[in-house]
């Protein structure tokens, strides 16, 4: 509570002091004060902008406080740097030092963040290059082992169980056995486990175990919503649970394993064009669902004949509903 009072109170107090000085035409120090505020705010915003964190914007809450502190320090320096009182002069120069430290702190923080970003970018670039190399080697290995691709892939993965770049390159392949995928889905490395979950050969029991036992199941929600082997009961729970991950409806809409009642609801209520497009390409689409999508489109899109989904419904009608006439 005290922190939030300071967060709001100090900027308000500064504005009151500055406004009072301007009203009384006490110009001494006000120009420097505003300059110090500008420097502190600009450097603070620049420092925050360097961060790639999803919570970086929270730093904006502190910007008014930093600006107000710099403003008070600038006002003190401007008013008392030439004072006849030696203590006041010393205090004025200390105020200047404090303002410089504020700006320096912002700049140093931004530079430190930039250094971290460059280091992470370099590490990511090296990882991607290593993954690309492994993909080429894996492709060559599979080509040299026609008819025994699964055996070769499983053997190669067993030999590289602690080689993260190799596993990330190998796991998208559809020639991996469910047993190997089940083992890798247990990996404490979320990236490895996620790639194992995404593989089309991963079994329903593996997917359900991931959903129910992972300490951070949200990380896998998109892959589970999209996977054809995800058990219907898991898809139902995932659809109806509180939304901690947004944008899952498009994956439910395109998944032929999605329970019928969910597809039915999406066909009647979806307003997002991407969700409707995914539903129209779902192999589980039948005449009843197509009809509901068509009615929903006429309602949501206000009979927009240029909507590609409207045209797609017309294209699908002859094959999905051979006894129906176009909408």
Characterize the structure shown.
- With 327 residues, this protein is mainly alpha-helical.
- Among the domains are: 2-121, no CATH class; 247-327, no CATH class.
- Helices cover 70% and strands 0% of the residues.
- It has 16 helices and no strands.
- It has helices at residues 2-23, 30-50, 63-80, 86-143, 149-159, 164-170, 178-185, 190-198, 204-213, 221-226, 232-240, 249-254, 260-269, 273-280, 287-300, 308-320.
- Helix 2 runs antiparallel to helix 3 (63-80).
- It is elongated, with a radius of gyration of 31 Å.
- It starts with a helix and ends in a 7-residue tail after the last helix.
- The model has no long low-confidence stretch (mean pLDDT 91).
Q: What is the N-to-C order of secondary-structure elements (H for helix, E for strand)?
A: HHHHHHHHHHHHHHHH
Number of strands: 0
> How far do the termini sit from each other?
61 Å
Query: Which bin fits the share of residues in helices?
Result: over 70%
Write down the overall mean pLDDT: 91
The assembly state of the depicted protein chains is single chain
Identify low-pLDDT runs: none
Question: What shape does the CA trace take?
Answer: elongated
Residue fraction in strands: under 5%
Q: Structural class from helices and strands?
A: mainly alpha
């Amino acid at each position: 509570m005290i922190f939030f009072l300071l967060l709001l109170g100090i900027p308000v107090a500064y504005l009151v002091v500055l406004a009072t000085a301007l009203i009384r035409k006490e110009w001494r120090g006000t120009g420097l004060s505003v300059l110090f505020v500008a420097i502190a705010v600009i450097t603070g915003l620049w420092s925050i902008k360097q961060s790639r964190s999803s919570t970086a914007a929270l730093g904006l809450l502190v910007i008014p406080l930093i600006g107000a502190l710099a403003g008070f320090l600038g006002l003190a320096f401007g008013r008392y740097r030439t004072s006849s009182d030696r203590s006041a002069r010393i205090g004025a120069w200390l105020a200047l030092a404090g303002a410089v430290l504020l700006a320096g702190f912002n700049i140093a923080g931004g530079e430190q963040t930039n250094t971290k970003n460059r280091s992470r970018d370099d590490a990511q670039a090296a990882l991607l290059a290593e993954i690309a190399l492994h993909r080429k080697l894996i492709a060559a290995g599979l080509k040299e082992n026609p008819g025994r691709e699964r055996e070769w892939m499983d053997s190669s993965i067993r030999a590289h169980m602690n080689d993260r770049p190799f596993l990330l390159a190998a796991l998208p392949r559809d020639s991996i056995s469910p047993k190997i995928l089940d083992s890798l889905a247990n990996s404490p490395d979320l990236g490895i486990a996620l790639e194992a979950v995404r593989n089309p050969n991963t079994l329903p029991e593996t997917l359900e175990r991931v959903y129910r036992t992972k300490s951070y199941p949200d990380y896998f929600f998109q892959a589970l919503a999209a996977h054809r082997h995800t058990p219907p009961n898991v898809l139902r729970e995932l659809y109806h649970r509180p939304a901690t991950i947004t944008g899952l409806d498009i994956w439910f809409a395109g998944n032929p394993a999605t329970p019928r009642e969910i597809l039915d609801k999406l066909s009647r209520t979806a307003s997002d064009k991407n969700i409707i497009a995914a539903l129209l390409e779902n192999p589980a689409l039948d005449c009843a669902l197509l009809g509901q999508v068509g009615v929903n489109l006429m309602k949501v899109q206000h009979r927009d004949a240029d909507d590609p989904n409207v045209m797609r419904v017309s294209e699908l009608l002859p094959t999905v509903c051979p006894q129906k006439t176009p909408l």
